[in-house]
Amino acid sequence: MSKSKKIILGIFTFWPIVYMVIFFLFFLQSFFMAFFKKVHPNFSGIVFFIIFGLHFLTIILVVFLLIIYIINVFKNKKISPDMKTFWAVILLLGNFIAMPIYWYLYIFKEQNQKPSTK
User: Fold this and answer.
1) In 3D, which of 98, 96, 77, 97 has the Cα closest to residue 86?
2) What is the pLDDT tens value at each position of the chain, 118 positions in all?
3) Which residues of 76-101 are buried (b: 16+ CB within 10 A; e: fewer)?
4) For residue 93, what is the DSSP state?
5) Which helix (H) or strand (E) holds 1?
6) With contact defined as beta carbons under 8 Å apart, do 91 and 98 qualify?
7) Alpha carbons 22 and 52: distance in angstroms, whole number
8) CA–CA separation, 47 and 51 (whole Å)
9) At what angle do helices 95-102 and 3-35 cross, to 10 degrees?
10) Are 91 and 70 within 8 A, CB to CB?
11) Burial of 31 (0-12, 13-18, 19+ CB in 10 A)
């Protein structure tokens, strides 16, 4: 995989974490606006549809990323056979937290390793 593809995959991999922060801040802001009764009718509707769209796209992205990473786990020759099952389970259960770790260890870091000439 080329360096640019690894970086693009990394950006997509870190997006769910960034989105989680954005969603949390939106939820917190909505809570305080409702609590202090400072809600503008047009603002909440527009922002809701933006957040809903981002939420939907992020879910679709995570599904595609899971497919990419699970395929990579089983094709990656640097991972021992017993660790392949471990990584598959970890990626399925802890997906948006485990994917950046896997990306760094087995995809991005791979470019820095040079073959041994011994």
Assistant:
1) 98
2) 889 999 999 999 999 999 999 889 888 877 777 777 766 666 667 777 888 899 999 999 999 999 999 999 999 999 999 999 999 999 999 988 999 999 999 999 865 555 545 4
3) beebeeeeeeebeebbeeebbebbee
4) H
5) none
6) yes
7) 12
8) 6
9) 150
10) yes
11) exposed
What is the Cα–Cα distance from 117 to 51, expressed in whole angstroms? 52
Contact 1, 109 (CB under 8 A): no
Give the global pTM: 0.80
To which residue do tokens 């202090």 refer? 36
Quick check: helix, strand or coil at residue 84? Answer: helix
Write out the two tokens for 118: 């011994």
Q: CA triplet 59, 107, 17: central angle to 5 degrees?
A: 30
Kindly state the DSSP code that residue 94 receives in the 8-state scheme. Answer: S
Tokens representing 52 are: 């809903």
Tokens of 85: 């099952």
Q: Enter the tokens of residue 63.
A: 């599904």
Cα-based torsion angle of the residue sequence 78, 81, 82, 85 in order, rounded to the nearest 10 degrees: 90
